[in-house]
Write a structure and sequence with these properties.
about 325 residues; about 20% strand
């Protein structure tokens, strides 16, 4: 294990993070049995992600165990605090934030953690919500001149997201969120996602670790009990984005109902050029200006190499 102050491979010891290489990290949960089958892992894998039995066993199984320990510890602290205060209020859901760039694999990781955490006896009910549902509808983005900044912090209804997570943390019996269609690339009117008092809620999105816009207000990240940032070199993520775009161009974009159907007839060269243009104008700037600066706010950082596999884990010291 090596101490390191930033989520990178630089030196330094007076830092808030412990840096653990993959071999040492994998050794932290040697007796934990993998509860997922190879077929289940394939179903969870996102387009372009590298996810196999070894990756799950060596990286995500230890992470699920650590998260389980944090969640169990939060329940114990709640009981002790309730006894001290003479109250008998029920504990509230443990909330985990998962952040990172487009194409870095955070959605796959969030889905995988949902399945792994639900296999632990004391956290059987795990829900996942993505912040896509809190994007403003396309019509509103058009009205505000923000369609080319979709995914930037200002394209989200941050108050609605804050209300949603606040209700979860207050112990509400049922909380509803808007539903987002990736096929339509828009919010679906009159469709909702319903969350009912989970043991754990995972909130996944590009900008979930953003600090508050006003120093006198809370940010949604202030309500997280634990947060994970999925990290990689920007050049690698740009390559992964282009590869994923080409795969979608040959697949999902061919659906006439797809918002991106107009890209389905591009030649491979045109599709690559389009992907690079979108990255350079939108996703790359969003990463450097808004997402990457939040990395140091995470509880844990998963650092991926160019093969899309995690090779280093950074854990914030307690």
């Amino acid at each position: 294990m090596r101490a390191n102050g930033q989520p990178s491979h630089t030196g330094g010891h007076n830092t808030p993070f412990i840096e653990i290489d993959r071999a040492d990290w994998a050794a932290l949960a040697p007796t934990t049995q993998l509860p997922l089958t190879p077929n289940e892992i394939v179903e969870l894998r996102g387009l372009g992600d590298v996810l196999d039995l070894r990756e799950v066993s060596e990286v995500y199984l230890p992470l699920s165990r650590l998260l389980n320990l944090y969640a169990a510890g939060a329940k114990q602290l709640h009981r002790a605090t309730s006894d001290f205060l003479g109250q008998r209020a029920e504990s509230t859901p443990f909330v985990i934030g998962v952040a990172g760039s487009v194409a870095v694999g955070k959605s796959t990781i969030a889905r995988l953690l949902r399945e792994l955490l639900a296999r632990w006896d004391d956290t059987p009910h795990v829900e996942l919500i993505t912040t896509d549902g809190f994007l403003y509808p396309n019509a509103e983005l058009e009205r505000r001149g923000l369609m080319t900044r979709k995914g930037f912090p200002e394209s989200y209804d941050r108050r609605a997201l804050m209300r949603f997570v606040s209700k979860i943390k207050s112990g509400a019996e049922e909380v509803r969120a808007p539903f987002y269609s990736h096929l339509r690339y828009d919010i679906v009117k009159n469709a909702e996602v319903v969350v009912r008092r989970p043991d754990i809620l995972i909130v996944e999105g590009l900008n979930v670790l953003q600090p508050p816009s006003d120093a006198h207000r809370l940010a949604v990240s202030d309500l997280f009990d634990f947060s994970v940032y999925v990290d990689a070199r920007s050049a690698d993520i740009a390559n992964w984005y282009e590869t994923r775009f080409l795969a979608l161009q040959r697949g999902a974009f061919s659906n006439p109902q797809s918002y991106f159907h107009r890209f389905s007839t591009l030649s491979p060269e045109e599709a690559s050029a389009t992907a690079r243009d979108i990255w350079n104008r939108i996703n790359g700037p969003n990463l450097s200006e808004n997402i990457l600066p939040t990395r140091s706010r995470a509880t844990l950082v998963l650092r991926k190499n160019e093969q899309h596999a995690v090779d280093t884990v950074l854990v914030r010291k307690i």
